## 1
Amino acid sequence: MEKNKEIVLSGIRPTGFLHLGNYFGALKNWARMQNEYECYFFIADWHSLTTHADTSGLKSMTRSLVSELIAGGLDPDKCTIYAQSDIPEIPELYLYLNMLAYKGELEKTVTFKDKVRQQPENINAGLLTYPVLQAADILIHRAHYVPVGKDQEQHIEMTRNFAERFNHRYGEIFPVPKAFSYSEDLVKILSLDGSGKMSKSEQQMNTIYLNDDDVLITKKIMKAKTDQGPVLANSKKPEYIQGLFTLLGLVSSHEILKKFEYDFNHCQIRYGDMKKQLAEDMIRFIKPIRERAAALQSDPVQIDKILTKGAEKARKSATATLLEVRKALGFRYL
Ligand code: TYM
């Protein structure tokens, strides 16, 4: 790796298979960034404990996610891929950052409030300090850019605040990282019923996974929410219709997108035809990724090797940062 390349970090929780939101919000950017930056990408297995206490499937889920990430474009020779739990330096930094994070701001975090609603029986402290652990993931490599989807924007903003507070109090150790996307805005892929973002473990029929087979992809798309179509020319699209157009824009040709835009604007759209076209193009997009991932999954030893090598490189960077952090804090008794 060249010495002066800027540093990129991002992660994903092993709480389900990769879906279109993960691909277009994150992985697509990761695959491009690995050619331009020094990149660290990891599986956030500690984070998954905040919502999924059962760890019995964690190892196989982590392996299959790594396979999917590689099938979707990551190259372990160009970027560092590792599991969060292999980097014991992260929790030490998490501890220091926790002293700089205030209860009030953590309680106001949108993802925390969502989880309080979703799992009122398990509002654990890890859930409250989730953004602090995420900040430690990012700052442990002194990252400059964090390629994420729109839903993570607030967490990155909090990371920036924690980094600034640390630098202000103890000395300039951390670059203040930025959320990143090659597109103009951070991406948000909607669930197929238009009722919020597509997500890994909720509403599986409204989520398209990169390991869905062709029949299931078609079934999900044909069931996606639509309506009678607009009655006024050039109407604003309802969110659930906009969501389908967004997907069309991502996997279909420009001409096809334009045709259905025209039909919509002239009140002659036939959603059945549009969904059939979308299903066809989606299958063409997903199939090679699904097949590559399946081939990689048949060789778990190879995946484990990638994780071991990744952990070694990530620990090198993490150890160097932690040494600076300890120096800055004045913890050097040994
Ligand atoms: P996670 O596992 O929920 O999602 C992984 C990545 O996929 C993006 N994403 C989406 N983008 C657009 N539309 C969607 N519907 C959609 N759903 C998911 C997410 O924005 C994310 O980029 N907290 C993180 C994991 C994490 C992390 C980190 C990320 C832990 N530490 C440090 C970056 C840096 C999460 O839960 O992502």
## 2
Amino acid sequence: MAGNRTFAIVKPMAVRNNNIGNILSIINQVGFRIRAMRMVRMSKEEAGRFYEAHRGKPFYENLTDFMSSTPTVAMIIEKENAVEDFRQLIGATDPDKAEDGTIRKLFGISLTANAIHGSDCDENAEREAKFFFSPDQIFEY
Ligand code: CMP
């Protein structure tokens, strides 16, 4: 999937605030096609493995508590230059620093509750997609 697919997860607070539809609408509007999607409530242990790269950092416990607090929406989305374009669309990690019109600026509340995660490179997109989806859950249409 290198190059044209990335992985995204709508985070708990955005789900709780009823922003799933608003976020999906933006993702579709800019031309991403949804190849896989499901609502998932991670356990603390799963959240810990998902964010393995951050284990030991000061925000790791908070982040994994938050990500396992309520359901999230995981998805694989496709478009040319997917990883980079999607990171532009979601904006800076901190919603206060994100550009106007980005998903995190519109729907993020804090550094931890920043509305959505997007993979930061093709390799992680592949790893994160596989974490949540088996091949038979990914669709061409
Ligand atoms: P995300 O793209 O999901 O990747 C790691 C997450 O850690 C990040 O978004 C933030 O929600 C969260 N986080 C919390 N504190 C920090 C921090 N100081 N620096 C980077 N990420 C942080």
## 3
Amino acid sequence: MKANSTDSPTVPVATGFVSKVMQEKLARLGIVNEFDLVLHLPLRHEDETHLYPINDVPAGANVQVEGVIIHSEIMYRPRRQLVCQVEDGSGILFMRFLNFYGSQVKAYSVGTRVRLLGETRPGFFGPEMVHPKCRVVSEGVPLADALTPIYPTTAGLSQEAIRKLIRQALVHGDQADSLAEVLPVEIIEHHQLQGFRDSVMFLHQPPPDASVILLQERTHPAWRRIKFDELLAQQLSMRLHFQQRRSRSAPALPEKNKLTRSLLHSLPFELTDAQKKVFAEISEDLAAVHPMQRLLQGDVGSGKTVVAALAALQAIENGYQAAIMAPTEILAEQHYQKLSGWLAPMGIKIAWLSGSQKKQQRQVALADIAAGNAMLAIGTHALFQEQVEFDQLGLAIIDEQHRFGVHQRLALRMKGAKTGAVPHQLMMSATPIPRTLAMSYYADLDVSVIDELPPGRTQVVTKLVADIRRDEVVARVRESCHTGKQAYWVCPLIEESEALQLKTALETYETLTLTFPDLKIGLVHGRLPPQEKSAVMEAFKQGVIQLLVATTVIEVGVDVPNASLMVIEHAERMGLSQLHQLRGRVGRGAEASVCILLYQKPLSATARERLRIIFEQTDGFEIARQDLRLRGPGEFLGARQSGVPMLRFADLEQDADLLAAARTAAEEILRNHPASAQRHLQRWLGGKSEYLRV
Ligand code: ADP
Ligand code: MG
């Protein structure tokens, strides 16, 4: 759906003047059509509408003065610099340039009249401006009649150039009516919004009396209008995708209570109420004739796997296949083993697919999947590769969904599309999405939450230990392993180099082997051949290995209930959700569990803050919320980011009220003013929203 309406010509209208090179530069700023120029809003504004007398300049403010140069000199102390004195009748101001050209020395000669814009600070000789914006003027040159916008720009594109383009776009847009109001008057009134045209005009060319503070804080009504519009566009596109999904068909897979019931009977535990509730929600979705797209959230250890198994069985008892995809080989393999244990007794064949398996094994698995002999396929990324063809895929389950890219999730879903129907999709994640994100970027999904842990879990006690007290930690590990418990020793994350990380893991393993000659110690890391990896994991699970040295490959999903102690080295390097996930590997059995976070000083402010949070909090939702606060949504969104247009102007926390308003407005507009919704979306998103469907 590319723009063709008068709202958004696909090429800048100024194309007449704009060279190909310029177009490329603009594209780097995300500007591809005229309307993008209109929405290319200033980062800040400078006030060149007033002149301040030098002796009356407010300290610290970025203001303009004008005067005549009465002295100009290159000084060498403490380093080479150009120092000029400017006099305006009220006082003298020093201007200093630490880097300057010969041409400047020439231009700023005694007797020249200059206009300076900058921040005045008390200097050695008196008030001074360092590197002010300086313009030679003749007496009486008129002042700017609007605040000067400062735009985000890119190499080779000057403020002047982009300002000119934007001015043209505004003039042209005004004539072409593309700045016209597209929102219904009820919405404008109800939310007390400033007009669209007035708002963009105001932000690009604020009048001299505009409040620089309100502009800077982006709380001015003009800013609020723009942010509302942006949030509204996001809400509209999310809702439309939701509706589109409702208009596609999927196989109806109602609960038959055969296989699902027999799994429930065979489990050694009873589902928690939360598990029952979420399975009921999933079960109902599966029974519908539209594709489910549900996100199952549950903190680490809340028991999502069994819910996934039940969902798969509901598909299978309807004669459809299911697939479970996990981001790491260790996790996929663990699912394979666990589900084999549950499903094999029912006579259900499971196919295993991984990137590293032997060709022949793979051929057999592929054949089983294609023929429909295997009703369940479990694997890694290998599952959505081209050669994989399902007989009849009814349900795709994606564990730790945030680890996958948009394309990958889409690819798996397309696997079922050969019959024309789209398979249902269940995504699972232990990284809870904070409320503001759920309401915005994830608003097109249905969400189920497992909000309680299975009974009998013990709270994991978290300890922060400085690296210099390592010996105490070692003693603790020894004691724990000698009483029949098991422990993880997690090696530091080394982001810049995988090779270095591997080296560290090997060294840690060697050191610990020497430290604990009487313990059985294992090592897993990402580079281990899969067979060895699974052999080590199996030995740990069986209790043959007492201490498992691991890289962060064990971060997700690994489930060994007898492990009750975890040591994390260089915890200060790890992110919050990573620490939370790692810590979730213990506290899975009845044994009281401890997680020791070893850290090395000095700590950065953020690292200190992260450690404080992980020490104080055990609730994954709270940790995620704090994580969002520390990192902002961009990073948090990870894979989803690539598919969803990011918010440029609105801030989910600061503008939470606007988000709520945009949500209600979106509903109202779609119901009563569909044409208005279309124009608004076209204006804001153009062709940028195709990935939302995943
Ligand atoms: P996660 O949600 O992190 O994927 P898992 O599905 O791996 O959690 O479950 C963690 C552990 O809890 C597993 O050993 C699982 O068998 C067990 N478990 C799941 N549900 C229950 C329950 N209702 N009662 C007792 N144990 C359970
Ligand atoms: Mg899991």
## 4
Amino acid sequence: MSTGTVAVILAAGKGTRMKSSRAKALFPLCGKPLIHYPIRAARQTGIDRVVLVVGHQAEMVMAAAEGEGVSFAVQEPQLGTGHALLCAEDALRGFTGTVFVHCVDVPLLPAELLAEMLETHRREGNAVTVLTTVLPDAGKYGRIIRGEDGRVLRITEARDATPEERLIREINAGSYCFEAPLVFELLHQITPDNDQKEYYLTDVLALANARGARVGAVIAADPGQVEGINDRAQLAEMEARLRAQICRRHLLNGVSIIDPATTYIEDDVVIGQDTVIHPSTMLHGATRIGEGCVVGPFSQLFDMTLEDGTAVISSYVERSVLRSGAKVGPYSRLRAGCDIGPGSVIGNYSELKNTRVGTNSHVHHVGYLGDTTVGDGVNIGAGTITCNYDGARKHPTVIGHDAFIGSGNLIVAPVTIGEHARVVKDREMPEEK
Ligand code: UD1
Ligand code: CA
């Protein structure tokens, strides 16, 4: 037996209007699958226990939620939102308390609104509290039908509504607080006698009223906060809105973003003060950028760590570290596992993979270094290529401190080049007597 508050997130639907082979729950919004957002809102409100109802592409949705610490209930086949919540009954057997139910396709529900729902639900002693909002055009949303005294009586889906009901502008936002175990008892009573022949969760409201249980509502003042994603156009609009919010947060924190409209920063990215982000730049994943850095224009960073005073100009870099004052670009690529030492410069048209570069070393022009360790004060000339792969295995290259590698060298690994060594073409060598 357990009490308190749990969250159930309905994510079993296909999302027909996305017109995709992929379940809606899996679509990314600012780099994270849609299912992440309601889980986050529940956690921010202090709800520890979250049950995710999965069905369409269940395996993939479960995999995408891995690491979120949720449990799963499977809905197969998908017979409607009411049936979806009923599928969580077993997972919540013995639970007494409030079940917060939210749909996966309303990602930006603020935690404050969720907290307000819980607060109202408790204060009014409701059996059901539904989140609503008022829209200028209520479209396909379920309509909130209130009695003359203003109490919520029931919800009618737009397709089942009478012409008069369809004029109602207060709509069901798709989030609810229910008391358990009552809600499961009522869910067993619902029938699929509606236009879609589905078991509607919304029918619980009329059943609760018939029982004499209290039904209440919280009206979201800003409809934008409860907007659903039903097609890719809405997803793109939501993405733009979330992206603008993230940029604004950084701007107010002292980061210069020259053109927020073309700057894409994922939610977990950290950026220090006085860093300048130039246009058409994308910062992904767990990227951390220090103070006084310059990034972009036209740079894409994935899970990068940039110490203070570094720069990444027009380059594509991933899972690597730039030590303070290091500079990459323009037009370079860092693949995973690079560590570029303080003050070092990786210049135009260079590609580095799994390569460690010491302090104040230069790889100024066109080249490839793979599985290489470069010391301090090394100069690597244009067109230097480490041939690290023999077709079967990868081999390392080591270049000692203060070595000078002239232009156009193919270094066939495994090779170790000592400190202060010079590797230059014949014509650069002093003439032999
Ligand atoms: C639902 C509401 C509607 C409300 C709208 C708000 C019902 C009957 N209608 O309509 O009143 O205005 O949300 O966005 O609930 N799902 C399952 N299993 C199913 C069906 C759906 O898990 O069998 C999940 C979906 O993955 C989705 C959510 O439930 O997360 C809502 O389903 P959807 O089909 O989008 O409902 P709407 O028609 O939008
Ligand atoms: Ca929907």
